[in-house]
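User: Is it possible to get a 3D structure for a protein together with its bound compound? The compound here is 3-methylcatechol. I've pasted both below.
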Amino acid sequence: MSATQTSPSAADAGANASDAFRASVARRPTAETSQERTDRLVRRTLDAIYEVIRTEEVSYPEFQAVKRWLMDVGEVGEWPLFLDVFVEHEIEKVAARTQRGTTGTIEGPYYLPGQQRLPATATLPMRPDEQGDRLVFSGQVRALDGTVLAGAEVDFWQADADGYYSGFAPNVPAGNLRGVIVTDTDGRFAITTIKPAPYQIPTDGPTGAMIAAAGWHPWRPAHLHLMVRAEGHRQVTTQLYFDRGDWLDSDVASATKDDLVLAPQRQDDGGYAVTYDFELEPAATS
Ligand code: MBD
Ligand code: FE
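Assistant: Yes, that's possible. Here is the predicted structure of the complex:
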C-alpha cells in the first residue's frame, strides 16, 4: 500500500472538508431556531458538560488541554470530520424516525455535489491503473408502492483502494470514483467501480490524536456512499458495507446498520457483483 507517500495530511483533508461544508450550507435548508429552543438546547448541552466536570472532577490542566484541542480542531479544519464521525449518527437516527423506504445512514464529510452525470449502465470515473477488485453494483429505484422510478439519480462517492477520497487527498484526480448515475426506463442502474478499502481517520490531526489518546481505533469499515433522489420523492442518503469486512462491528463513526451490508459474489472474471434496490417515499407535501 502506498499510504506513506499519498497519505493526506489532516490539514489537507480538513481544509477541503471545511470548504465543502461551507459550500453545502448554501444548498440546504438551515434551521430557523426560536429563542426558546436555542435557550433549551444550549442550556441542556452545557448542563451535560457540567455534569461530567463535577462527577469526574475535571482538573485545570485537563480543562486547558481541552481548550487547546478544540482550537486545534478548528485551525486544521477538522470540525466536519469530528462532528460527522462522533455526532452525526445520532442526528441521523432522529431523522430516520420519520423516514420510510430504504434505510439511511450518515453522509459524512466527503460528499461533493455537481459530479459527472452518467447513463444507467456506466463505469465510474477512475484512473487507468485504478487499484482494487472490480465491482459491478446494480439495482433498481422504486417508489414505496413499487412504481419504478425512471430518471432517478444515484449520486455515488467512495474511497479508493487505499482509503482516500478524491477532492480530499493529494494525488487522487478530481472526480475520481464519483458520479451521478441516472436510472433507465425500468428504474435500473449498473455501476462498474472497485471495492473500496476501509477508511482511516487521519492520524496526524487532533481528531486522530484524541482517538489515540483514548486508546480507540480510527477505522471505518469499507463502504460506498449514495444519495438517491427522484422527482416527487424524499431523498435518501445512505452507505453500503461489505460482509466479512474489517471494522463492521466497531465503526468509529457508529454508522453501520444490518440491512446496509452487501454480500458481493465473485464472478468468473475475478471481479465481484452485487445488487441492491432502493425504495423512496413520497416527498413531504407542504
Ligand atoms: C468517512 O469516509 C466517512 O464516511 C465518515 C462518515 C467520516 C469520515 C470519513
Ligand atoms: Fe466515507
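Confidence is low (pLDDT under 50) at residues 1-6. Residues 108, 110, 199, 223, 225 surround fe (iii) ion (ligand 2) (CB under 6 Å).
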